[in-house]
Amino acid sequence: MNEIAVELSGEEVLLSSDRALYWPRERKLFVADAHFGKAAAFRARGVPVPHGTTEDNFARLDTLLVRFTPRALVFLGDFLHARESRGERMTAALSAWRARHPLLDVLLIRGNHDARAGDPPAELRFVTLNAPHVEGPFEYCHHSGERERGYGIVGHLHPSFVLQGRARQSVRLPCFWMRKTHVVLPAFGAFTGTMAIERESGDRVFLAARERIFEA
Amino acid sequence: MRERGFEAASFQREVWNAVARGESGLLHAGTGSGKTYAVWLGVLEAFAPIAKSRGLRVLWVTPMRALAADTLRTLACATEELCPAWEVGARTGDTTSTERARQSKHLPEVLVTTPESLTLLLARDDSRALFFALDAVIVDEWHELLSNKRGVQTQLALARLRRFSPRVLTWGLSATLGDVELARDALLGVGERGTIVTDATPKPMRIDTLVPEKIERFPWGGHLGLRQLAGVVREIEAASTTLVFCNVRSAAELWYRALLAERPEWAGRIALHHGSMHQSERDFVERSLKEGSLRAVVCTSSLDLGVDFLPVERVLQIGSPKGVARLLQRAGRSGHAPGRVSRATLVPTNALEIVEAAAVRRGVAAGRVESSRVPKKPFDVLVQHVVTCALGGGFRVDELFDEVRTTHAYRDLSRPEFDWVVAFATNGGNSLEAYPEHHRLIRDEEMMLRVATPALARRHRMSIGTIVADAMIRVQMLRGRRLGSIEEAFVSMLRQGDTFLFSGRELELVRIHEMTAWVRAAKKGAPAVPRWNGSRMAFSEDLAECMLDVLGDAGRGLFVEPEMQAVRPLLELQQRWSALPTARSLVLEQIRTREGHHLFCYPFAGRIAHIGLSALFAHRVTRGVAGTFSISVNDYGFELLSAEPVDWKARVEQGLFATENLFEDVIASLKGAQLALRRFREIARIAGLVFSGFPGQPKSARQLQASSSLFFEVFQKYDPSNLLLSQAERESLDQELEIGRLGAILDRMRVQTLVMCTPPRPTPFAFPLLVGRLRERFSNEEVSQRVQRMLLDLERVAASEEGVRVS
Question: Coil, strand or helix: which one is B521?
Answer without folding.
Answer: strand
